[in-house]
Every structure is written in structure tokens, then in C-alpha cells.
Amino acid sequence: MSGPGRPTAGRASAGAAPVLGLRENLPQFALLVAVNALVGGTLGQERTVLPLLATEEFHLDLYTSALTYIVAFGLSKAAMNYFAGILADRFGRKPVLVAGWLAAVPVPAMLILAPDWSWVVAANVLLGVSQGLTWSIAVMMKMDLVGPSQRGLAMGLNEAAGYLGVAVTALATGYIAAEYGLRPGPFLVGAAYIALGLGMSVVLVRETRGHARAEALGHVDAHEHAHGGLTSGQVFTLTSFRDRSLSSVSQAGMVNNLNDGLAWGLFPVLFASAGLGLGEIGLLAAAYPAVWGAAQIVTGPASDRWGRKWLIAAGMGVQAVGLALVAATQGFGAWLAAAVLLGLGTAMVYPTLLAAIGDVAHPAWRARSVGVYRLWRDGGFAVGALLSGVLADLYGIPAAVAVVAALTAASGAVVALRMRPGDHARR
């Protein structure tokens, strides 16, 4: 926040350093929140519809085959997350954001016109590229603007906007599909989001790399490796394996999205097999990201106050309970309660993981560290789709869900045992 003798506007006067803080940069921050809601909505167009499209229109019998679009999405998004950080440090944040929206432009038309499943898989490669660039950059730009003191709040607002966008669109497309069919109606919503997001990013979004440079001047190292001169390879190794906190966060992010890939690909099929209609399936598909999105407004700033470690560990445990409830019960009411638990646990984890990366990583290589974390995290989509698809084909969907619940609980235990407490306090 601003202090004595510092300018109060986020855009500094000529020759002055940019000013950090949420209040000082509120108009641009709010704009980026809106942009990320559109990014989430672009993903949400698929959450209810594609699993049913696979079984009802393309007649894919094996779950492993049906989930190939999630594998394609997860791999391309994970790769773009990594390169987003490198590109953002080299060329700036805004050009990468715009490039991400451009990658999404063909996606709705490909999904509407797809004559076979390979088109759907190809569309999800492009969607993964788009999501990896746009969502990663939205995260980085908000971190740039607010500085260290409100990072949890910033990530809570960012992820809340994105996943409320997912939830609202999943619900809306479920009702559109029930009324007008699985194609083209639901994907026209995504086309509108892409047009609006691209226009806002080109015309209204401003570059924020200068804010990161200003923060770097007064940065206090979180550990002995946190100087600004690391290579991209060193950042990868540090974030993935060497640093206790960064590596704990990376594995937890991967497992979190492993169970999200399961929920995305198999839950609608499970619900449909139990006789639920498209409206009920859309509501269940929306409830999980809706609770996830809304609760992050609370859990993000709570991590600023209470710390990251135990909120992450507890959140993984709550997710595991929600998944176990899906595996052990049947019926709309029980599954709705499970979706709420899964959303609440994810809300405890998601913004906190991002804030924890920002706590430890030096501003000079923070964008690259965020990219590495998001590489591991969104690689979880592919791992989750493959693992849950194979298990579901062999043993059924409830067994696949139970195995993923156990993995999620184990991931929380890793965080509890390995992650350093109090890194956020050093900032």
C-alpha cells in the first residue's frame, strides 16, 4: 500500500517507479479480474457438454478414449504455462495475453463442426494453449500489481473470477443443451467470451512488467537461492524438486488438477448413468467450481493472515473426503454435498498454492517459477484423465474416484511433512 511521500496512483508519474498495491492499481486489477472470468468461461463451455458429446454423439465406449480431449488439453496447457513465464519475462505480459486469446479463436467453430472425435481433441490442444497463456498471464499481472502484502487476496480474487466463470458457463450450457441440443448452442457462448476477452486485452489491458521490476528493487530473499540471476533450468529444478516449499506446492497442484480432470471427464457420465437429466447434471457440474470460485474470496486473504501450509494440507484432506463421498454414495443430494466439499477443499488450496509460489520466488524469476508450478499443476489434467480412464474401464467409475481420493489425501500429508511454515511471513 502507499506510504508517506509515495504517489498514490498505480500508474507512476514520468520517471517514477510504478506503485504497488491493490488500491493503487484498482482499475487495472478489476479489469484483469473481468478478463480472467472470461478465460474461465471459455473453459466452462466444455464442462457439462463434452463428456456427454463423447458418449451420445460420437459413441465412444471406453472411458480412456473419451477422455483423450482432457489429456490433450492438460498437456498443451501445461507446456504453455511453462513457456508463458519465459515469454512474459522476455517480451512482457500483455503480448502473451493477447496471443493466448488468439489461440482460442478457432475452438468454438471446431467443436460445433467436428465430424469426428479427432477434431474435438485438436480443439482442446488449442484451448490448452490459450488457457495456459491467458490464465498464467492473468495470475502474473495481478501479482505484479499488488506486491507481496496482499498476494493471497489477489490470487483469491483471480481464481474466484476464473472458476465462477467456469461454474456459470457450465450451468448455462447445461440448460442450453437440454433445450436446444449439445451443438451448436453451448459453444456459441464460448465464442462470445473469446471475442470480448480478446477485445478487452488489446484495447484496455496495460503492461505490468515494470511493477515486478519495482518490487525486485526492495525484495527480501525467502531463501539462499532467491537471487535474481537464476537460469530457466535452475528455476525449473528449484521449483520442481530442490526447494521444500516450492516442490511441495508443485506436487499438490498436480494432484489437485488430477482430481479435477477426473471430475471434469467422469462425473457427468456417472451422473447420467444414474438417470439424472441434463439440467441436474449441469447443476452438479456447476456446483463444484461455483463453491470453489466463491470461497476463494475468503480463503485467499485468510492465507495472508494464517499462513499457507496448513490451509493447503487441510484443503487436500477436504477434497479427499468429497471424492470419497462421490465414490460411496448415489443420488443428487449426496452428490451435491460431495460437490460442495470438493469445491470448498479446492478453494482452500488453489489461491494459496499460487500465493506460496509468489512468497518464495524472487520477482526477477517469479513468472518462470509460476510457469513451472503451473506446468506440474496442469499436467495433472492429463495424468488424471489417463489414470481415471484406465481405472474406470477396468473397475468402474466409483473405484477410480476412490483411488484418486486416496492420492489426494496422500498429497496433503506430503505438504504437512515437507513444506516450510511461515515463508509468507518473510515477505
UniProtKB/TrEMBL annotation:
Localization per record: Cell membrane
Pfam families registered for this protein in UniProt: MFS_1
Chief subcellular location: membrane
Keywords recorded for this protein, A-Z: Cell membrane, Membrane, Transmembrane, Transmembrane helix, Transport
Residue stretches making up the Major facilitator superfamily (MFS) profile domain: 29-424
Source domain of life: Bacteria
Transmembrane segments: 62-84, 96-113, 119-139, 160-178, 184-205, 310-328, 334-354, 397-417
Membrane topology (UniProt): Multi-pass membrane protein
Matching PANTHER family: INTEGRAL MEMBRANE TRANSPORT PROTEIN, RESISTANCE PROTEIN MDTM, PUTATIVE-RELATED-RELATED
Protein name as it appears in the record: MFS transporter
Top-level taxonomy: Bacteria, Bacillati, Actinomycetota, Actinomycetes, Micrococcales
